[in-house]
Amino acid sequence: MRGRSLRRLSELLLTVVCLAAAIAWPVAAPANDHQLNGYASWYAGKFQGRMTASGEVFDTNEMTAAHRSLPFGTVVEVTHLDSSRTVEVRINDRGPFVEGRVIDLSRAAADELGMTGEGIARVRLRVLFLPDPPTHRIQVASFASSVSARRLRDRLRSHKLAAEIEQTATVYRVVIPGLAEDEIEPVIRKLRDLGHRDVLVRVES
């Protein structure tokens, strides 16, 4: 009998410890668990055919939208809170820069929500898809000679820089690929120390 009581006491203590640990070490919410209420607006007209902040040409007939901070390529579900109608849009632009507004929709998306007549609508946003962060490559130099390109590549590798040669029909480019955003500046500083100041940073596709 006593042994059973001790066993129950041990189980109770273990439960308390686990609950305390759960409170002290909360599990982070998934990166795409993003929900936000506010007002949506829409844009078209003079913006049709212009370049968006992502570099795409704006087409108001596509299901796209502008958001102030979500990464380009993010897919968002927008719910009209008064009618419960929903639409999925892809973020490819920046905005709206008006207090209280959380998203700027293309006309096609606004039509789908039934809000083109009213101009703005109360909405809830829910992120459905977040793209992987882009990687970058730094072009250090380009040569007509493969020998010169290999010489620079090997020199950079001797300084622990993962250089590669990118060959086209006419030139050999020495590049450092696969860099995350926070790796760019340290690599650029190291290249400057080695005498390479005019480098080109490109986003990898």
Architecture overview:
This protein has 205 residues and is of the alpha+beta class. It has two domains: 95 residues, RlpA-like domain (Barwin-like endoglucanases, Beta Barrel); 68 residues, 2-Layer Sandwich (Alpha-Beta Plaits), CATH 3.30.70. The chain is built from four helices and ten strands, in the order αβββββαββαββαβ. The protein has a six-stranded mixed beta barrel. Strands 8-9-7-10 form a four-stranded antiparallel beta sheet. A hairpin with a 4-residue loop joins β8 and β9. The longest helix is centred in the N-terminal third of the chain and has 23 residues. The chain starts with a helix and ends with a strand. The N terminus is likely disordered.
How are the SSEs ordered, and which strands pair?
Layout: H1 2-24, E1 35-43, E2 64-66, E3 75-80, E4 86-93, E5 101-106, H2 107-113, E6 121-129, E7 136-143, H3 146-158, E8 164-167, E9 172-179, H4 181-193, E10 200-203
Parallel strand pairs: 1-5, 2-4
Antiparallel strand pairs: 1-6, 2-5, 3-4, 3-6, 7-9, 7-10, 8-9
List keywords for this structure.
205 residues; Alpha-Beta Plaits; alpha+beta; 32% strand; 6-stranded mixed β-barrel
The CATH homologous superfamily of the largest domain is named RlpA-like domain
Total helices: the number is: 4
- Mean of residue pLDDT? 85
Radius of gyration, CA atoms, in whole angstroms: 26 Å
| Low-pLDDT sequence parts | 1-7, 9-33
What CATH architecture of the largest domain would you give? Answer: Beta Barrel
Q: Which strand-content bin applies to the residues?
A: 25-35%
User: How many angstroms does the end-to-end distance come to?
Assistant: 69 Å
CATH topology of the largest domain: Barwin-like endoglucanases
Domains (count): 2
Provide the spatial order of strands within the biggest beta sheet.
1-5-2-4-3-6
Which overall shape is indicated by the principal axes computed on the Cα atoms? elongated
Major sheet details? 6 strands, mixed, barrel
Helix content: 25-40%
Count of extended strands:
10
* Element-by-element helix/strand order: HEEEEEHEEHEEHE
Helix/strand/pairing class, anyone? alpha+beta
Please give the CATH class of the largest domain: Mainly Beta
